[in-house]
Amino acid sequence: MISQTTEYALRAVVYLAQHPSESWTTRQIAAATRVPAGYLSKVLQGLSRSGLINSQRGRHGGFQLTHDPENLTVLEVVNAVEPIRRIKMCPLKLGSHGEGLCPLHKCLDETIALVENSFQNTKVSQLLGRPDTPEPLCEFPYGNQFKGDQPIEPTQGET
Amino acid sequence: MISQTTEYALRAVVYLAQHPSESWTTRQIAAATRVPAGYLSKVLQGLSRSGLINSQRGRHGGFQLTHDPENLTVLEVVNAVEPIRRIKMCPLKLGSHGEGLCPLHKCLDETIALVENSFQNTKVSQLLGRPDTPEPLCEFPYGNQFKGDQPIEPTQGET
Known about the structure:
The structure is a homodimer. The first copy, chain A, is mainly alpha-helical.
């Protein structure tokens, strides 16, 4: 129901929000979020196109979040990669329905609206920690990233 | 967010609930619900395996709903073809999370729960008509099904 792409995008954004003072390469984010690098690369392109992250080239290049997590909603992240589409017209293209929805599609649209509102009302900052839950991606805290036996340092000069 | 398969299954169930006194072939349901017959055939197999519809062979064979729409929830239809999966464990398989979810996956699970509850609390009978909405599949009322210029009669002896 929540696609792999959407979930991967949220993992990446949470990781970048947790580590705002550095730039991170695709390889580093992939290792930290446990997302295949090729898949992640496409997800990051989507986030980049929407302006939620930026990429800098060069030795200290990499990706950074462009928004304050306090002001960035989960909905903005979701819509950057796989926009939530409400049902505005009869999917059967029944002319007689006009602009109205039958009860079936009204029910589905109301359910999609629940998801949209839930994501709209949740800020990325709320995903970074709660007293009653483990920290997200908590086996990869800043300064303790490993890929195999090799520590992964920030800013490897690749994106 | 709501898959094509799920939506097609609901269209088919609504159609069968609207026309309970007859059996309907795949071809008839496909024409009425405007779903490609090959795709619909697989959807109907899923509904049949879950016992929500049954099929009878022979001249007057076809599909019928096995449940009273007053007692059948939208969730039962959805779960018959593409079960809603709650997030019960960390998708990153982080051992340190144990049975707890981090705020990211807790947020996603809570959103999935909203959808699950919404579908659980809606009966198929509620999809058949509301005073303020057009009837579902309303260009194909009982006794007025057409495929091209040919009226489609119920129970063509095929499923």
